[in-house]
Amino acid sequence: MQQLRCYGDDRNKGFCVHCGGPSETVDHVPSKVFLDEPYPENLMAASACRKCNNGLSLDEEYLACLLECVIAGDTEPEKLHRAKITRILRDNSSLSARLQRARTDGAEGPVWAPENDRVNRVVLKLARCHAAFELNEPQLQEPSHLGFKPLPLMTEDERETFERDQDAFDVWPEVGSRAMQKVLVAGTDAFVEGWLAVQEGNYRFRISQANGLTVKIVLREYLGCEIVWE
Ligand SMILES: [Zn+2]
Questions:
Q1: Rounded to the nearest whole angstrom, what is the distance from the C-alpha of residue 20 to the centroid of ligand 1?
Q2: How do residues 13-63 score in pLDDT, each as one tens digit?
Q3: Ligand 1 center–CA 28 separation, angstroms
Q4: What is the 13 CA–ligand 1 centroid distance (Å)?
Q5: Distance between CA atoms of 171 and 183, rounded to whole angstroms?
Q6: Is 219 helix (H, G, I), strand (E, B) or coil?
Q7: Tens-digit pLDDT profile for residues 100-113
Q8: What is the Å distance from ligand 1's center to 15 Cα?
Q9: How many CB atoms lie within 10 A of CB 109?
């Protein structure tokens, strides 16, 4: 993936995009636990303070492992598809046990009880990084809406609304932002599908500014997330 230099102003560079604290670290989006090697070149990144960047890494690891267990229908490391997650769960027996406890066997196969507060924090972190990096619009305040739902549980209407945008020509990026440069470099074709796949099967996202700022993310082609700042 080509990383475009940001010609926007420095609003989102001097501070942590999550809490407004000091800019001490580079926060990759998505974090590498959601991606497999070889990583895409020039991963996007935003500024973060050490506390925010490190503080969320266990939650991110948890979510990446949970998704893998849900998709495989199992917590046994050798049954999982992503080698990285197999390694993490082999080395981390307490996380492995925690995921096993989250599983119940229902009539139609296993069901999983996610720790929603942890999923919430990760989804918000990813959305804040995208908002800051793509649009030069850091969103320190709480979003007006944050939701996530497995794609297979969405009704056909929900899925259709989720996948497309309210308005076909909905991206009006700020001049100088990376999204604007993508429009200039690639023409509007870059946004016909609307989704940008960071790594096929693992992570895609889209941003719309039709009504406020909406970030949509799909993790592992399983979990659809939507975050809105009105
Ligand atoms: Zn911070």
A1: 6
A2: 688 999 999 999 999 999 999 999 999 888 888 999 999 999 999 999 999
A3: 14
A4: 12
A5: 9
A6: strand
A7: 999 998 888 888 99
A8: 8
A9: 7
